Amino acid sequence: MTPMTPTTYQKLLNKHVLIIGGSSGLGAGVAEASLASGAYVTIASSSQVKIDATIARLRGLYPDLGPKIQGVVVDLSFSSSTTEAGINDPDRVLEEKLHHLFLVAPTLHSSPETTEQREINHVILTAADALSFHPLSSSSSLTPSTILAASHFRLILPLILAKVSAQHLPPSSTSSLTLTSGSLAEKPAPGCALTSYFAGGLVSLAKALAVEMKPVRVNVVRAGVVDTELWSGSLGDNKREEMMRGVRERSLTGREGKVEDVVEGYMWLMRDGNATGSVAGSDGGVLIV
User: Fold this and answer.
1) Which of 42, 96, 105, 167 has CA 20 to 30 A from 60's CA?
2) pTM, whole model, 2 decimals?
3) CA–CA separation, 30 vs 270, rounded Å?
4) Distance between CA 143 and CA 86 in Å, rounded?
């Protein structure tokens, strides 16, 4: 048996975590938790303003971070991924942007004393646009075009990210890719066929990628309703609060999920070198009532 060392359980100490969608919500929570665990963190977002605000907040919480928190602006949205200056083939735009991100991020954490680059060990995908609710009705907005646009962050981006990650992550069980799904994968609701389809697909995708990308580990966090700004953008403030009240009534914990709770799933899946093809669920027990 290998003797225990003081760092046995400090599995993220000096590791490099790349968080795509790390400037808000769950991604910002993973960034904070990773820094608290001694990791280097790069947050990627389409908004420089949000990146700056998040980094400023984290530096306020952890004044001695030094170069451990950095940010990269990258727009991975559907519209930006169909056209890009210098890339003539639309099919290459998204992939090239991700390759560039993987090449730039390791250079950001070098210090004046060394030019050594810090390779990426873990990739977290929390980036998403507003949720799409398209009931199956005669007046529905559910069309091939809306399905394609809505699928970008939840089907296309995860798969292309996996393709690129496989080329950049060290081939080891200490490397991981973690996707983000939702409880609709297990408990659909009326009017949510499209979103449930995506949620279930992400769970299946993580398992398939775990087989294909071994020994790199691939997992997924399956979150219930979490108190983040995503819901305001999807529903508006009034409907958001109405939904949250309903969640509190149904939940066995009597409340909606908090970022600091659900983030623990991402932390487990990064730390546990034996977890791959796994689902970390955090939903307040709504799946069993």
Assistant:
1) 105
2) 0.90
3) 11
4) 32
> For residue 203, what are its two tokens?
């769970």
pLDDT values of the chain reduced to their tens digit, one per residue, 289 residues: 555 567 789 999 999 999 999 999 999 999 999 999 999 999 999 999 999 999 999 999 998 888 899 999 999 987 765 555 456 577 899 999 999 999 999 999 876 665 678 999 999 999 988 777 778 875 678 888 888 988 999 999 999 999 999 999 999 999 999 999 999 999 988 888 999 999 999 999 999 999 999 999 999 999 988 887 765 555 566 677 777 787 888 889 998 889 999 999 999 999 999 999 999 999 999 888 8
Domain 16-288 fold is Rossmann fold (3.40.50)
Number of H helices, E strands in the chain: 9, 7
DSSP for 50-89, please give it: HHHHHHHHHHHH-TT-GGGEEEEE---STTTTT-BTTB--
Q: How far apart are CA 223 and CA 115, in angstroms?
A: 39
